[in-house]
Sequence to fold (419 residues):
Amino acid sequence: MKVGNNRGIYQFKNGGWGYRYTYTENGKRKDISKTRDKNGNPFNTERAAIAARDEAVFQHKLRIKEKPLTRVSLAEVYAEYCENGRCGKAYSTIKKQDSLWNNHIKDKFGNRFIDTISVAEVNDYLATLYYTEGRAYMYVEGFLKMFYLIFGQAYSRNYLDLNTYNKLCVNKDCRIQMPKMKIDEDLDIVAYNKEQTALLDGYFGGTNAQTAFLLGCYCGLRINECYGLKWENVDLEKGAIYIDRQMQYQEGLIKLVSLKTRNARRTVYLSKRLIEYFTALKKEVNQKSLKAQRKQNQKIIEDLDGKKLSSLELVNTLPNGKIQTVNSMKYHSRTIKSRFGIDFKFHHLRHTYGTRLAEMNTPTHILCNQMGHASGKVTERYYLAVSKHGIDILTQNLNKIQNQQKRAKRKTETNDIKQ
Fold:
């Protein structure tokens, strides 16, 4: 096969001609080769192959640059998504999306035709949020996901052509992306050391938040999962609890709702101490002497399936029947700060749980399952986190190396003297 002078044109040994061209669609490279015209006749001359290739490339460009029939604004796309596209989304996800839209994106881009917004404009906006306004990196990532969501919705509803959508969301070389992370950005996992954990353990003992503390520190539960745990999901014989819902405030009402991700639904295994604790707690709440008081103090809330549920069925209800909620930790956070100087956040108990198990070489896939992570990459961060315990081991190993070198040096000096 002989390549012609014009790019994409080639000649066969039998004298016939052909052409080829390539293009990218949905991020994948595709090759088109032809040796015959649209009537099925072979290209007998180089000129015929060139003309056919030029026409094919021209028609392809017309097709991908074809404008949508209706031009819509970013606000119209988001409104259509809210009405039709987010059925089944978690309540917290909907509230977060609406917050980002109403408080930020709407004023900046809402009235713009969606096909006129460029990659550079969005990248500049994200950079302003991060560098100029000082927003947290993970918070700005929420904006990036929102833009991907809205542009994806626009493309799926034929408000954006393929070429524009690829430039905005697909092509790795030019698509919308996060600003470069600052050197001093704090994304570290915060875990309490053994001394701090002992102080917290002693402080929470006997308080209204002891059960939640133990679930966070020794089971790695998120705070909403702690307060959404039902007694029917506690299996003391198997030493396990089943996490399948969480507690949230929605429109000022306490509700049990679905977990945010599929992987968050999991079976978490209990230590011997927690099995003993829950056995004693269950026995206490079932006392006949508390039955009338508990019934009087109970609240009726909405369960996952929309049915009514007595708060007495929740693990985090006090023996007297008073329900505990995610707000129950606020007082303790302030008290711990003033009494011990510890910046207490409930989620750091989860970090502590993950860090301790990682330090003990728990297999990554097991820890990922127990913590309900959507990705093993998130779990791997616990194995890379620098903790006080890890630093102590490092220091001990460094001292061992130094002592070994000293002994080797003394042995060498002794041998020299003998010689």
